[in-house]
Write a structure and sequence with these properties.
It is a single chain. A hairpin with a 2-residue loop joins β6 and β7. The protein has no helices and 30 strands. It is elongated, with a radius of gyration of 37 Å. Helix content is 0%, strand content 47%. With 394 residues, it is mostly beta strands. It has 4 domains: 87 residues, Immunoglobulin-like; 86 residues, Immunoglobulin-like, CATH 2.60.40.10; 86 residues, Immunoglobulin-like (Sandwich); 86 residues, Immunoglobulin-like (Sandwich), CATH 2.60.40.
Length: 394
Amino acid sequence: MDGMGRSVGPMQVTVSPVGPPAAPTGLTGRGGDTAAILAWTAAYSAEDDPVVDHVVQYSADGVQWTTIDVGTTTETSLKVTGLANETILKFRVMAVNSRGPGPASEPVTVVVGQPAAPTRLAAIVGDEHIQLSWVAPADDGGSPILDYVVERRIDGGWTIVDDEYSATTTAVIHGLTNGTQEDFRVAAVTAVGRGPTGSVVSAVAGRPDPVSALKARVGDGNVTLSWTPSTHDGGSPILGYRIEYSVDDGSSWGVVDGEVGTSTTATVYGLRNGTEYQFSVAAVTEIGMSGTTSVAAVPATIPDQATSLMAVGEVDGLVFRWRRPSDGGSAITRILVDLAVVGSEGWKTYEAGPATTTARIGGLVTGSEYLVRVTYENGIGAGEPSDAVRVLIR
């Protein structure tokens, strides 16, 4: 009973168990030159009792384990050095908190001295074949690379491609089916053994190569594109080209008039002067579309005519000002000021800074009348001169 005469039931309190951390997960490892490179996912530990260290152990038989002196570390990756190449070792990791070490992770097997994975795997497609190229591993594990293993996958698992025993970083895979996507990956082989595979590249045999030498010529609200056709059509004639555009630096794309014809030039109209557009071009065959080639362009035209020109004569000179016109979508590069004596032939031209809207010309003859006008120029060319103003020098 409480002080008010009410019945009070028993209080239930839930207490979270406190103990060592859980086992780290996702342990991976690869060999290096007299080294093993390990990485894992952090182990769970109570919020008020975080992981403060890791214990790393190795074993040759998976029964007898030896602890490696790695100091105190809360990192989830580690390079273990001082190992003998051509040895096969198992590694495991335990997380430690104030309660002590937790259970060990699942072990991972590492071949010390095995090479790292090749990088920058790329594919060039052709008719019923694909040419692969890659960059040799940055770390060969201390032994020269003797060969590369190339694997392919269509729908199921990976199979090894039969190729010649070679340390070259290219391979041509023949006998493929045009129009079918396949995946490829490559691993390096040394006297120690085979290393891990690198990134996967996907390719469709029969697709044309990308176009090259894509250029853009800007105009007033338009851009004219030109390019060199694909070197290889993948075994099927080029049916046309697909042009796309982007105004957000490639985040999203729109199609320009669908697939254009087989001409290697095209003009895109209806564009906004002064806006940067990204354009991409791809060749299209019955098999599919090539990779894209891109170019950036800013449509523009010559500047508008300067307006509201006003001039006042002074002793031996004149001062004038005007209203700045539209730059046509291209930055103003200079302003040309033309001066002529009334009744004479020809203009004398002066140059003003690209940002000014005022100017003064001195050294003129008192009592003479002059004509003055202003012309704006940008990267496209010179605009129309302003209307000339007549001024008397006092």
